[in-house]
Amino acid sequence: MTQEPDGPTLGAGEGPDDDAALHHRIEQDQQDYMRPEWLERWRLRIARNKPLEAAYRVFVLVIGVAIVLAGIAMLIFPGPGWAAIILGLLVLATEYRWAERLLDPVQRFVRWLARRAKDPAARAENIAFAVIVLAIIALALWWYLARYGVTLEPLPFFN
């Protein structure tokens, strides 16, 4: 069983003057990792200096885990918990394949939503769903106004 590397490494013969090899490596790493081209160029520059690379990977790990932990806390306390967890995993996925694999279900769901949004048959269903949700909101607003009028009194902090 071969083990995949967790970060970019420069192969033999690849140096700062070898633009073709660098360009090939950038394209390969863009396919392997979730990185834009500018970040990949910067990342490969860091990869040439091993102590700097180790510090960078630790930095990404600390920042990504901190965002994920903040997202987990926001699941309990007010805040965009799932959004923060996904953002933290996106940060981690720039360096670690395990984080990228954790994001696979999210990516599949987003692709499904994009296909559904472009599908004319699904668009009709989406519009019908939106009309039903708006009708429920309108009925709830009508009920509130019929019962209490235009006031904020039922709210506990206005007593």
Mean pLDDT: 79
Main structural class: mainly alpha
State Rg: 24 Å
Task: Count the beta strands.
Answer: 0
Strand content: under 5%
Overall 3D shape: elongated
- Outline the biggest β-sheet: none
Written account of the structure:
With 159 residues, the chain is mainly α. The protein has a domain at 1-100. 72% of the residues lie in helices and 0% in strands. It has seven helices and no strands. The protein has helices at 19-32, 37-47, 50-76, 81-93, 97-102, 104-118, 120-148. Helix 1 (19-32) packs across helix 2 and helix 3 (50-76) packs antiparallel against helix 4. It is elongated. Residues 1-5 and 7-16 have low confidence and may be disordered.
Task: Please summarize what this structure is.
With 159 residues, the chain is mainly alpha-helical. It contains 7 helices and no strands.
Task: List the main descriptive attributes of the protein structure presented here.
159 residues; single chain; mainly alpha; 7 helices
Topology:
Blueprint: H1 19-32, H2 37-47, H3 50-76, H4 81-93, H5 97-102, H6 104-118, H7 120-148
